[in-house]
Write a structure and sequence with these properties.
- This protein has 9 helices and 6 strands; from the N terminus they run ααβαβαβααβαββαα.
- Strands 3-2-1-4-6-5 form a 6-stranded mixed beta sheet.
- The protein is globular.
- The termini are far apart.
């Protein structure tokens, strides 16, 4: 049986923007102003994604202060730690989130029966297959269902090599992507959390600096060069949600100034 196929996009027409000009104008704007620009530009086509990770309260609070009822996409892989589910419940209630939960149509048990425990295979292709099934397909379906033309995410340039190459406004899969806190440091994140009395994920106190699925996340150690070494057994840095969706798109991004 083949992997779950990505659905064709049903998104509404997005405005045509000059990304070079947009990034010159908004490259150094404060995060809230960029969110407001996104709301003014894309209206109901603007969505926010969250993983309910270590510092997710920052983006959830920052964005909903500007757009209170923005659709918030959460891809639940079915393998998240107990603490993540409880953290999601706490933040959803506290911030009155308009939460849209998406999952793979292939249940965890069925996936394991057909493909094995993909995360245990020391092989990038196995991890990529896992990510396509449990994360990428549900996210693409969510964006399509919600007619999203623009997507707000909390990516930061100091997290992975790929993210260092991004601009604050870009494109992926035919949709615009807005990164309000791209240039924030860990101190900026901490200061925001303290100022607004927001919580870290509970696993932060156990040494986790980033957290995803229970089987592919661990606390940081003195031997780790980067916080992303604590994910995916150190084999890869990205789960696929924030990577180009085709070779042609990758080539286009590689050749752009973004």
């Amino acid at each position: 049986m083949s992997d779950v196929a990505l659905l064709p996009s049903k998104m509404q027409a997005a405005p045509v923007l000059d990304l070079d000009a947009i990034n010159r104008e908004w490259g150094d704007a404060d995060a809230s102003s960029l969110v407001q620009w996104g709301h003014s530009t894309f209206g109901e086509g603007l969505v926010l994604s969250t993983s309910f990770g270590i510092q997710s309260a920052v983006m959830l609070h920052l964005v909903t202060q500007v757009v209170p009822k923005i659709p918030v996409i959460w891809v639940d892989t079915g393998y998240l730690p107990v603490e993540t589910y409880r953290f999601a419940e706490e933040l959803s209630t506290r911030l009155d989130l308009n939460l849209k939960v998406y999952q793979s149509p292939l249940s965890p048990a069925r996936m394991e029966a057909l493909h094995g425990r993909l995360w245990e295979q020391q092989d990038v292709e196995a991890l990529n297959r896992y990510d396509r099934i449990r994360k990428v397909e549900p996210m693409q379906r969510a964006l399509s269902d919600l007619n999203a033309t623009a997507w707000l995410t909390g990516l930061r340039s100091d997290q992975t090599d790929h993210r260092k190459s991004l601009g604050r406004v870009g494109q992926q899969g035919g949709r615009y992507k807005l990164l309000p806190i791209l240039k924030w440091s860990s101190k900026d994140v901490y200061d925001y959390l303290v100022t607004h009395d927001l919580p870290y994920h509970p696993l932060f106190d156990m040494g986790y600096v980033t957290v995803g699925d229970w089987h592919s996340s661990r606390p940081i150690t003195a031997d780790d060069d980067n916080e992303r070494d604590t994910r995916f057994r150190g084999i890869k840095q990205e789960c696929g949600l924030h990577l180009p969706q085709s070779p042609e798109e990758a080539a286009s991004l590689d050749s752009s100034s973004l």
